[in-house]
Structures are given as C-alpha cells and as structure tokens.
Design brief:
four-stranded antiparallel sheet, seven-stranded mixed β-barrel, alpha+beta, 14 helices, 2 domains
Length: about 450
C-alpha cells in the first residue's frame, strides 16, 4: 500500500532536451502521461514521475575526476563545488556542479572518516539553463542515523498526504565512475520549481530559518535583526514586510487579538497540518525541536506565510532532545517541543487559540485513522523494504549492517550512547504502535 500524496505530479510527455546536450538513452521507456508543456515561467514542467518513481530504484552515476573528488573530501565542511557528469535513469547531464551538504550529519561523517556524504547537485551552475527532466537542482541524501533507510521517505509521504508542502523522494542506486557507492535518497529541492508546483504565485520570498532566529521569537523590527533567517529567493526585491508582520503578530498580539492578527498573515491551516505530522512522528530535528529544517514561503496569492517541511531523516523519534525513549513516545501532543515551549511561539501561541487547537486535534485524529496507523505504516514498510532490500545488502558504504536494517524495520536498536547511557533507534513499526497508542490516550 502507498500513503496518499495530495499534490499531483506534473507529468511531462517528452524527455528534457536542454542547453548542454541532455539526451535520453534510446532504450529508455517514454515518460508517463502529461503534455510536457511549459509552465508559467516558460520552463518545461518537471516530470516528477520519472524523477521520483515510487516502484523502482533509480540508477544514478556521478562521473567525477579523482582530483575533484579529493577537493571535496579535503574540506568536507566547506560548500565547495566541483564539476561532474551526471547520468540519472539513463539521461546524461554533462558538467553539473556538485558539493557536499548537511549540518550535523556532515560533521559526523567527516569525524567518522567516511566519504558517504550527502550531495547537492546544481545542474545549471556551469551550463546556463541546463535541466534534468525539468529541474535544475537535486539532492542525494545518505541515510545518516537511519538503519531502516526509510525514515525520510516515509515522513515526507505523511507530510504530503496531509497536504503539507514537502519534497518528493525516490531511492537511487548511486555509483561513482561506474563503481557502486551506495543506496541514497533523491530529494526534491525547495526552490522555484517546487514553488511553481505548489503555489498559485511562485514569486514570493522563500526563507530558510536556522538557529538562533529560527525559533521565531522577536528580535527586532528589521530583517537585519534576523541574520540566520536566510532569504533563498526574491532577495533583491522583497521588503520582508510580511515576515516582519508575522513575527510581530506572533510575539506581540494579546490573547484576545491573536486569532485575528496572526490569522491575517499566517496560513494557519497549513501550519496546523505541519505541526500535526511533526508531533505525531516526534520529528524534533525541525521547528519544534532544533528550530531549523523548515522553510517559510511568502505566498503572495494568499498574502500569508506558509510552512514547508524539510529534512525529515530524524522522524520516528530519531532525534532525542536529550529525553529518554519513553518520554519521546509519550511526548504531549499539545506541547511537542524540546525544552521551554515559550521559545517555540509558533507552537505555543497557535495552540493557545481554542478553535485552532480543536482543528489540530481533528488533524491528529485524521492521521490516526488514516496514514499513521500501525497497519498502514507496516504495509508501507514491508513494501519499501522489499523494494530496497537487495540494494541495502549490496551497499558498500552504509552506516549500519544489513542485520540492523532488517531489525530496525520493526524493532528498536539499543546501543551505548555518550557517557555510557543507552541510545535507542526506534523500530518503525514498534514506534508507530506505541506512539499512536500514546496519542489515542492523550487526545480528547
């Protein structure tokens, strides 16, 4: 069984033929469906079904010189781009730019002495307007901290299934210069193509908050007071009026005026949907916990900010916040934060409005009756495990053993952690069973 996806894929009837000589292998099957016509920006609409297929593992090769690879490995914490040639599902894309990506994961992989980093691919850095099946950027994620390989993929399905803007994903069999490197996850980049697919107006400002300002507490009335809220698009023309009005309403509205003031500048329904999935999955490497790994988009067609989910590899309780395992299972649905909830006003203040909290409870109940049930997750885990099992076994660079993979699909892995304390990586189905029971007991 497959979890539902709310936003339909934009299909493309033609393989992309773009500047830079991108061509399809003549033996490749034709793309499924769609008219392949240009989108509102004049670009060929991405062929998401071919980019992110649900029923197969995509073959991906990066042809990169030993010297350029050594450059990447020499300074793994720096955002250094080097050239490579990409082959994605038989489609050749020459002269792309590749760099390492990630925050804590990148540091950890570097400290391990491994070369299994996550990668960001920029297709038009060196060749103007070059695209792959309609997109110009793509991420390849390494499965860090996840013995099951499935957390990020499953979490994004659940976000999208509840109508939250979240990336599409697909499993890929990554080779480097023809040699097997490992099983990775291709992840859609949140940028112009993503925005055009989800919003009526894709010309608004896209923000990627990081700590400390990512907690969205009040710092001042100028964008300069929020240096870690990075502007990813429309940086040249936006005056940040909507973002600052949102921060002001979130932090300064009285209880009596909060619903009207905040509701005028925030997509409240979308925020509640984001919080519901995040709380259900105890996805604390997000706004609710670490106050990063999310985007805010200025949807000008609605005149409001919308929350976009991002980087869910630590879902299913895989980021502990320093809490014992049972506390994560029992995390209160109405206080799903690490530490002081006052430092997460987007949770505390939104859930302080009775009508909004009631709607949040309805959304959690919807999850518990639909996509986030033990039977639904078990079915999806079994289907996905069957899809990737052989590739996990063959993966020469994976962080965990094949036995760990098989175990963690259903059962917790417990290992010694820092300072001698035990560290639990929840099994996917065992977590789901216990978490849904805990939420059932908590909800009215």
């Amino acid at each position: 069984m497959h979890l539902s996806v709310t936003s339909p894929a934009l299909l493309c009837g033609l393989l992309l033929i773009a500047c830079g000589g991108i061509q399809a292998d003549p033996a490749d099957p034709p793309d499924a469906g769609g008219d392949g016509g240009p989108d509102a920006a004049g670009q060929t609409a991405p062929d998401y079904d071919r980019l992110f297929p649900a029923d197969r593992v995509v073959d991906v090769d990066l042809a990169i010189s030993d010297a350029d690879w050594a450059t990447l490995m020499a300074e793994p914490l720096e955002d250094v781009y080097v050239p490579a040639d990409l082959t994605y599902d038989g489609i050749s894309v020459p002269q792309i730019a590749i760099r390492l990506k990630g925050n804590s994961s990148r540091n950890s992989v570097a400290m391990m002495g491994s070369e299994r980093f996550s990668f960001k691919l920029d297709l038009d850095e060196y060749v103007d307007d070059q695209r792959l099946l309609g997109v110009d950027k793509l991420n390849l994620n390494n499965g860090f901290k996840d013995p099951s390989f499935l957390r990020e993929h499953l979490a994004n399905q659940l976000y999208r299934g509840l109508g939250v803007p979240a990336p599409r994903t697909a499993f890929v069999r990554l080779t480097r210069n023809g040699q097997l490197f490992g099983l990775y996850l291709a992840v859609e980049q949140v940028e112009a193509d993503f925005l055009r697919d989800r919003f009526a107006d894709a010309d608004g400002a896209l923000y990627k908050p990081e700590m400390p300002e990512g907690d969205l507490t009040w710092r001042g009335d100028s964008i300069a007071d929020y240096p870690s809220i990075e502007v990813k698009s429309d940086e040249a023309t936006t005056d940040h009026t909507l973002l600052l009005a949102f921060l002001d309403a979130l932090n300064h509205s009285s209880d009596a005026e909060l619903e009207a003031r905040l509701g005028a500048v925030l997509d409240v329904e979308g925020t509640l949907r984001y919080l519901a999935v995040t709380a259900a999955l105890v996805n604390q490497d997000s706004y609710t916990g670490t106050a990063h790994n999310y985007y805010l988009y200025e949807d000008r067609s609605a005149g409001k900010l919308t929350v976009i989910a991002w980087d869910a590899n630590e879902a299913f309780g895989n980021f502990s916040c320093g809490l014992p395992a049972q506390s994560l299972i029992d995390l209160p649905y109405d206080r799903p934060t690490c530490g002081d909830p006052a430092r997460r006003p987007l949770v505390q203040r939104v859930l302080s409005v009775p009508a909004w909290k009631a709607r949040y409870e309805e959304l959690l109940a919807e999850l518990l009756a639909g996509g986030f049930t033990t039977s639904a997750i078990t079915g999806e885990v079994e289907a996905l495990a069957a899809l990737i099992r052989a590739d996990v076994a063959a993966d020469p660079s994976k962080f965990f053993t094949t036995t760990d993979f098989e175990t963690n699909l259903t059962t917790d892995l417990v290992r010694p952690g820092p300072g001698g304390a035990s560290q639990t990586t929840f099994g996917l189905t065992s977590f789901t069973s216990r978490r849904t029971s805990a939420l059932d007991a908590q909800l009215p």
